[in-house]
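Page 42, continued from yesterday. The earlier attempt failed because a stray header line got pasted into the input along with the sequence. Redoing it now with the clean sequence only.
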Amino acid sequence: MKSTNELKKDLAIDFINERTVISSNKSFRTHLNYVWFMEDVTKDLKIQYNINIKTIKQNKKEEDLLNKKINLIKLIIKNLNEEYKIVKNNIGFSEICIPWIAVKTYYLIFNLILIIEYLITCDINSFKVGHKTLLERFKNNIKRNILYFSNDFLNRMVSCEDIKKWKLPPGHNLKLPQNIDFENRFKGVIRKLFDYVIEDFSRDKHRLKDKRKFIQNNFINIFEFFYWYRIKSNYRDLEFLDKDIHILDYFRFYNSYFIVSKNFYMALKELINNLSEKRLNKKIL
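This time it went through. Structure tokens are written below.
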């Protein structure tokens, strides 16, 4: 029979898993809604490839670089899992861990995609690709249907020009998942990512005509969520975590972000193993 403390803990976890918010902090509520949406669209996620893959023979340098990435990925996964166990046993710890789970998740996904890029191109220089370049290459693979997701929200490439024209219903960002349709939530997340993209572009003090050209030529994919939330958590704009947040809501946010990271990890891992079976005659993760 479970102890009283164990029963209280189980009840707390059940309550935390409900899609509701106690906190009055509107910015936090918005971001929690967006993380919940990412949890929904990554559930049971599959990623297929549409490219001819031929077997290659790796040289020693390629093997070493690949193994370094694999070991790093395993280390990050182990760290995330161990941290999650700690947080689940002490939900107050989630307040401290929230900024870092976005960073860890991003670097997990970044290294997974480096491996995917290598397996697609067979180019050892793939392991040296920078963050923005890799993001654009991955988006280009989606745009060209080289990679496609089982959830179509992740296949959609939305032009910045179209995003600027969107008119979203008032208060859409504060509505709980059960009170808003997926399309409006998708647009809300994309619009937020668009704001981050434009803010980042403006930091370089580009001229107005450069900004217009940038908007005309660029597209946003919801996958960029991981890149921009890493920037948000690691470098700037943590105000949404400042005040008026209930401890249960901190855990709701952390718990959902952890699930998103695991969902995407499992999808990318399966894709990597499918590619590596063709390219290297073995599963590597």
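Notes: The beta strands are 47-49, 147-149, 158-159, 219-220.
Reminder to self: strip header lines before submitting.
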